[in-house]
Amino acid sequence: MRVFFALDISPPLQDAIARWRARAVAAAGRAVRPGNFHITLHFLGDIAPRQLDLLCAEAERIRADAFDLRLDQCGWFPRPGIFHICPGDIPAPLAELAAATRKAARNVERQSARQAGAAAPKSRKPYAPHLTLFRLCRVRPPLPTARPDFTVACDGFTLFESVAVADGVRYQPLQHWRAQA
Fold first, then answer.
1. For the chain, what is the largest distance between any 2 Cα atoms, rounded to a whole number of angstroms?
2. How distant, in Å, are the alpha carbons of 7, 79, 97, 116, 157 from that of 101?
3. Cβ distance 97 to 90 under 8 Å?
4. pLDDT digits (tens, 9 = 90+) for 82-128
5. Beta-bridge partner residues of 76
6. Which of 29, 11, 156, 17 shows the shortest CA–CA distance to 86?
7. Cβ contacts of residue 55 below 8 Å, gap of 6+?
8. Element (H or E) spanning 99, and its range?
């Protein structure tokens, strides 16, 4: 099972972002379905089903404060060709939550690696919060006709599973943890 920790986006905000995208952004690559909008905190990739309970137990220990996240910039990652919206400023509670989910994942990876007699993999990528609008963008898309300006009310974090379906993937929530008010 392929899993990741993320901030969930409410259905009304998913709809608002999709309407803005349709109105302000030239089609580039393959559009992400609004129901899959999220902001990744940490991508784990494939885990064994037996690791799921360990991962949830680690996540249960995370203490996170609620915060608002403003998505007010656009960006493009040439590899793997992702056009996205992102925050101009990363609030401290977001950076702390991303670090905590990465630590939880590493704890599970270390434990699993010890049991298998292997070394746990290490991710060296710096955290870059973003919400993907289009995938497979071969060239930089033109700037939108209107700037994004969305506020995500972050009241917790979710563990998602990426499930293959006939027309792509769907992100299914497995468990949600509430932030402290």
1. 54
2. 11, 24, 6, 22, 9
3. no
4. 999 999 999 999 999 999 999 999 999 888 765 554 444 455 678 99
5. 83
6. 17
7. 3, 44, 47, 104, 105, 108, 159
8. helix 92-116
- Strand-pairing partners, residue 24, are none
> Tokens 């599973």 identify what position?
161
CB 76 within 8 A of CB 140: yes
Sign of CA dihedral 9, 12, 15, 21: negative
The tokens describing 155, both together, are 């009241």
Tokens, residue 85: 């919206």
Strand ranges across the sheet with 82-86: 30-31, 131-135, 82-86, 73-77
Are the C-beta atoms of 1 and 52 separated by less than 8 Å? yes
**pLDDT tens column, 6-52:** 999 999 999 999 999 999 998 889 999 999 999 999 999 999 988 99
In terms of residues, how long is the chain? 181
